[in-house]
Design brief:
single chain; 471 residues; mainly alpha; 22 helices
């Protein structure tokens, strides 16, 4: 029976581990609304304060309370970044490259995991001992400092600037991001953004407005499902359990840690081809292949563990990680921003990533108990969940590759309401020059344009007329 000290240690350690997910949920709840108020760029910069504070508290904890609080704070920073960075990237990226650049977010996460595991592996003799582990906190501090030095010189999201400052300011931001684009291309993109904003007369929406509009609650629910696929696919359980699987295969603990680093490195390497294929194969195809591959790998892994073929289980575990990196690991972060119009994007991001963090916490909390009860059969549960998630993807997720939000919202609209938005979107695509509603401004004049998009969207019923008259 465990002693009182052991029980206290296990409790405090569990609180410290789960504190990250709790903080992530809090960050997801707060930062999308902040991004709608102050802008995507400044919301991202606001996460740095939590990260600096957490690095200090984790590196030099005054007690268990400081370690737990530090984990919560780093979770708030990470949750805020995971909510705002994909939103910012999706809004500054051309439609044809949105999937590729959206996947960079996941690529950076996987690189961070490899670096952290490599530095802490005792066999590699870097920073993984009792006397030097504190110095690992210098790595995230350096990354945060680089962000603080570089991001302020970048433009904010053109979509946010269009909504808050008007067409001229949005065009100026687009010129910064599209240095080689012509004025015609700039204003055509601004027109497309205006069409997206016209889907609602409100600058932002809440639960009541979303519940009344199928074009909104449909994407929100699908975005939640895609985000849940990250956690219900069982990837965290595999990473937590990887060292034990390797030890059961006859690998010593110190070498098992090294192989765990290699598993994370595989995660990085597979993310790169997924990033390159994202805008060629499409999101739906990649998500379906990734989840289907995980299902097959879990079946092999469960069978191998039950029959004692541990080397086969190790190979299947690598297969799970590869399939996750290729599919669910990439898409969930940016799919919500692609599915929802800008006025519902903050709410959808909060709900989608909030469900992600909540599922993260529940899986991390429940998995040790499930493992105790089911032993080698545990991963059979994830074979079932990935099968269900594959079916969900094939039936409910629309393809977003190369499509505007207005076109994607048509997938969720009732059949009787589909004709007008589709025609308007086609008209924007065919316009050879900027529509009359968007006069070209000189570079100096565009800085002074304070035309409120909220005012223009208030008369959105008449917006389609100038857009359709471009021919």
């Amino acid at each position: 029976e465990a002693s009182g000290n052991d029980r206290h240690f296990n409790l405090m350690w569990s609180l410290a581990v789960s504190g990250f997910a709790v903080g992530g949920l809090l960050g997801t709840l707060v930062f999308p609304a902040l991004a709608n108020r102050v802008g995507r760029k400044w919301a991202i910069l606001a996460t740095t304060g939590f990260c600096y504070a957490s690095c200090y508290m984790i590196a030099f904890p005054a007690g268990w309370w400081a370690l737990v609080l530090g984990r919560v704070l780093v979770g708030i920073g990470a949750g805020g970044a995971c909510a705002t960075v994909p939103m910012y990237v999706a809004e500054i990226t051309p439609v044809e490259a949105r999937g590729t650049l959206g996947t960079v977010h996941q690529l950076m996460i996987t690189i961070g995991i490899v670096v952290a595991q490599g530095l802490s592996a005792s066999k590699l003799e870097l920073l993984g001992d009792d006397g030097r582990w504190h110095y690992m906190m210098l790595v995230p501090c350096s990354c945060i400092t680089l962000l603080l030095l570089m991001l302020p010189s970048c433009e904010d999201s053109p979509v946010f600037l269009l909504q808050s400052h008007g067409e001229g300011r949005a065009a100026e931001a687009l010129r910064w991001f599209r240095a080689r684009a012509t004025d015609e291309q700039i204003w055509k993109e601004v027109s497309s953004m205006q069409l997206e904003l016209s889907l609602s007369a409100c600058e932002s929406v809440g639960l009541r407005e979303v519940a009344r509009d199928r074009r909104l609650w449909g994407p929100v629910l699908v975005g939640c499902g895609v985000n849940l696929s990250m956690q219900l696919s069982g990837i965290d359980a595999v990473l937590y359990y990887s060292t034990k699987v390797l030890q059961d295969a006859g690998i010593a603990l110190e070498w098992a840690q090294v192989y765990t680093v290699l598993i994370s490195l595989v995660n990085v390497l597979v993310t790169i081809p997924a990033m390159m294929l994202m805008d060629k194969a499409g999101r739906k195809v990649i998500q379906s292949l990734g989840l289907g591959g995980m299902c097959v790998a879990y079946l092999i892994m469960t069978t191998a563990l039950v029959t004692g073929q541990h080397l086969v289980a190790v190979g299947a575990m690598f297969g799970v990680v590869c399939c996750f990196a290729f599919g669910p690991g990439c898409i969930a972060w940016f799919i919500v921003a692609e599915l929802t119009p800008v006025h519902a994007r903050g709410f959808a991001t909060t709900v989608g990533l909030g469900s992600n963090w909540l599922a993260n916490f529940l899986v991390a909390f429940a998995f040790p108990h499930v493992l105790t009860a089911l032993h080698a059969w545990t991963f059979g549960i994830f074979a079932a969940t990935t099968l269900l998630l594959t079916i969900f993807t094939l039936t409910c997720l629309p393809e977003t590759q190369g499509r505007s939000v207005a076109e994607i919202s048509d997938f969720f609209a009732p059949a009787t309401a589909r004709a007008v938005p589709t025609a308007a979107a086609a008209a924007v695509a065919s316009c050879p020059s900027p529509p009359p509603m968007l006069p070209k401004l000189s570079r100096s004049d565009s800085w002074h344009s304070e035309t409120s998009t909220a005012a223009s969207t208030a008369v959105s019923a008449g917006l389609f007329t100038p857009l359709l008259s471009c021919e």
